[in-house]
Amino acid sequence: MRVAVIDIGTNAVRYLLAEQKGNEWVDVEVGGSVTGLGRGLAERGELAPIAVEATVGAVSAFMRRLKALDARKFVLLATEAVRAANNSAMFIERLEKTTGIPLQILSADDEARLAFIGATSGLKLRFHSDALFTVADVGGGSTEVSIGRLQQPERWLSVPVGSRRLTEQFLTEDPPTSKQLESCKQFALEQLQPAAFLLRQGTVLVLTGGTAAQLGVFRLNLRQFDASRIHGLPIRPETVREWLERLAVLPANERRQVPGMEWGRETVIIAGLLLLLTIMELSGKETALLSARSVMHGALLTMLS
Fold it and tell me: I need a labelling partner for 84 at 20 to 30 A (CA). Which of 92, 103, 162, 282 fits?
């Protein structure tokens, strides 16, 4: 049986189509698009009508494709933007009326827990069962940090900093000024301090989310996302810094032309890379692993197994 999970985030909508073979789930197709549901949310406190329409349209299009690929069951999830918006009830009603499927709003705790389970799945052949993992899931509106053994989270927390939120708050010039970059980095450092202990305690740091996936595409010089090549890819702070410095001097229209750049991500990639770099520096680790899996895989393994 094929099932689909659709994750509606602050910056992007992602979908996962998976098929059960024996006791395991196997990815059939992973995709998505940047819809910017949380664009302007911090300033207005509401989801913008144009972003709502773009997101509902994307979900509807993905569902049509997934049904054509024989998906028999759907799980719709939403995270920070829908949790925080004053008009989230309107969005939920609009989406459920269009899709006919109830939308599950993940709490910050649930998001962190599912991100950990998903991000560490598929890594079991590389590590001892008692290895202690810290997972940092950098999204558009929040960053979840969790720690535990493979697919067994023990502690977690959610920090209200994400790539879109920081972009709108600090990186208002195009390209951003050095002063804006420094202010953004300092703010991220301050906000992530509550997670510093978890970041340092783990023996293996795993980075996941849209920015991490995009970094993997850059690192491997890919034209598009390839989960099989990115999942478990080692990354060093120097690589994050190099890409940050390269992209930060380009205006958005030139960042958009960088090979492998996901359409729409050029507007938030700088803040996302700043967050990844800050997380790595706080962790004290010389190397982290990129994960091509996150909340959707966590939901698949806990809600549908």
Answer: 282
Nearest to 127 by CA among 232, 53, 261: 232
Phi, psi of 181, rounded to the nearest 5 degrees: -60, -40
Tokens representing 99?
């899709």
Q: Which of 111, 9, 2, 112 is nearest to 59 (CA)?
A: 9
| Domains of the chain by start residue, with CATH | 2-105 (3.30.420.40), 122-295 (3.30.420.150)
User: Which tokens hold the place of 265?
Assistant: 């991500």
* Stated pTM of the model: 0.94
Cβ atoms < 10 Å from Cβ of 42: 16
Question: Can you read off the two tokens belonging to residue 248?
Answer: 């930060």
